[in-house]
Write a structure and sequence with these properties.
globular, 7-stranded antiparallel β-sheet, alpha+beta, about 500 residues, about 20% helix, single chain, disordered N terminus, 10-stranded antiparallel β-sheet
Length: about 500
């Protein structure tokens, strides 16, 4: 189990004291031990490293690092450890766009075609407002499968990111339904650059980071050395391995690194009216009739303009959370309670949000959320010998698509497509997802197959005349993939599927 380190900064006004102990902070609802809560959730969520900041009434009252910034080198996470930012950066993209609206450079009702005439709107009209509040109907390239998963280690220019989704079907008519799509934010970045004549990096630095006075929020690309940057991790079986996605494979506003302190400082600059007029920010925190219906599972959760309008019971909050690239982030303010919590971790999954929620509920005097079920132990795989003749009958290139999409997944998953090749490597039956590492297929007692990396998933083949003509894959998360054999298992046939 991951241990934690006492690397705490306790801030009172302008006094900063480094401490080797934790504090029991006094909040409006009484004494709370944020350290004990953080430790508990970090263990439950199996987080490698995290940094936590809690502010009340505009003052930071708790800031601490937990676990490891680098697991292999035993480097502890600190209060000011730098992480890739996924989630909390999105509101600041919204701030940048709203600054242009304040300056008369854009209007919320401007059509995308005014600025990006080459983008195929397929007969639709899409406004900047609909990009900001995720009601555009444009498919999210993050959920298309091969388009991004097979190229997640390949840096891309803005037009290459656009090409991932530009020719895909729209998931609904613009303005009729809320559905998450970071594709819209890629378009917003393109619009910003064309209107200003600056790169997104230049504009954000001059108009957001510099006025906020932050020093540890660089643009992160694969030619930049970022001091203090944590390594990124994902779960594999009962342990963790490095997450190898390249942040430059995604749109520009996902290519940032920061600390919990810097994110809070930027957020305070918004609250202190240094970046936006109050009436502009109020527009960002208001949902329209469509984005009020953000979640069927939680009707109290709404969406504004680049901001999630969230809540813990009747305590309303504004902010954003997310996970990608082996990092997780959460930043929420509870305005009526004058409480802000920022969490960054270096472990894939919505663990930063889980940690933020647990802290917020304790501070607000709310009961704990139900304890999540303990992770099931990784199943022991059998390794039944697969004869050479059977290996030969199973090989091929298979293209799988999603069947019925569970209601908790985004509509974009209906267009999910993933390519695998099953092949013979010197007498071993192997499987390889396009763009990722190959690994062995282990035959189980029931005739299905599994891999070490996804021991809960089961793979089976549709056979006809002693030849696999199809493949099915069931996941622990409930998503069923199935599809046909489209060719031989040779590398040429396999890699042509991305074209």
């Amino acid at each position: 189990m991951i241990d934690t380190y006492d690397n705490t900064l306790i801030l009172f006004g302008t006094h900063v004291a480094a401490s080797s102990f934790y504090v029991t902070a006094i909040f409006a609802q009484g004494p709370v031990d944020p350290d004990a809560i953080a430790r508990r959730v970090i263990i439950q969520e199996q987080v490698v490293g995290a940094s936590v900041l809690i502010a009340q009434k505009g003052e930071v009252v708790f800031q601490k690092g937990y676990g490891f910034a680098d697991l292999g080198l035993d480097v502890p996470a600190k209060p000011d450890t730098v992480y890739g930012v996924v989630g909390p950066m999105m509101p600041f993209t919204g701030v940048a766009v709203m600054q242009l609206i304040e300056r008369g450079k854009l209007s919320l009702d401007d059509d995308v075609s005014k600025f990006i005439p080459e983008f195929p709107l397929q007969g639709h009209h899409v406004s900047i407002r609909q990009l900001l509040n995720h009601t555009s109907g444009i498919v999210d390239y993050h959920y298309l499968g091969d388009r991004i998963e097979a190229t997640s280690r390949q840096p891309k220019a803005l037009d290459e990111v656009m090409a991932l989704y530009a020719d895909k079907k729209w998931v609904h008519e613009p303005g009729t339904k809320w559905d998450w799509s970071i594709s819209g934010f890629q378009l917003l970045v393109t619009i910003l650059e064309r209107v200003t004549g600056q790169t997104y990096e230049e504009f954000v630095r001059q108009n957001i980071f510099n006025p906020a006075g932050v020093k540890s929020t660089p643009y992160c690309d694969d030619s930049t050395l970022v001091y203090g940057l944590s390594r990124a991790y994902r779960r594999l079986g009962d342990g963790h391995v490095l997450a190898h996605e390249d942040g430059m494979a995604y749109n520009t506003d996902l290519r940032y690194c920061s600390t919990v302190g810097d994110l809070y400082q930027i957020w305070r600059a918004v609250q202190d009216k240094k970046l936006l007029r109050p009436e502009t920010f109020r527009m960002m925190t208001a949902a329209d009739s469509v984005s009020e219906h953000m979640s069927a599972q939680d009707p109290k959760m709404h969406y504004g303009l680049a901001l999630t309008l969230n809540h813990e019971e009747d305590h309303r909050s504004i902010g954003q959370h997310g996970s990608l690239l082996g990092f997780s982030g959460s930043m929420y303010e509870f305005p009526a309670d004058q409480l802000t919590i920022v969490v960054l971790t270096n472990t894939e999954g919505q663990n930063a949000y889980a940690l933020s929620r647990a802290l917020a509920r304790a501070i607000l005097g709310l009961p704990d959320l139900p304890k999540p079920p303990a992770p099931r132990p990784t199943p022991t795989l059998t390794d039944i010998t697969v004869p050479i003749a059977e290996i030969g009958s199973l090989t091929g290139t298979f293209v799988l698509t999603a069947g019925e999409v569970p209601p908790n997944l985004h509509d974009s998953y209906t267009q999910y497509r993933r390519t695998y090749r099953v092949f013979n490597e010197n007498g071993r039956l192997m499987i390889e997802p396009l763009g990722q590492a190959p690994e062995r297929l282990f035959k189980q007692e029931d005739g299905s197959f599994a891999t070490r990396s996804s021991a809960w998933n089961r793979i089976s083949f549709v056979m006809r005349a002693n030849r696999a003509v199809g493949m099915k894959m069931t996941s622990q998360g409930g998503l069923l993939l199935s599809g046909d054999r489209v060719g031989e298992s040779d590398p040429r046939t396999f890699h042509q599927q991305l074209q």
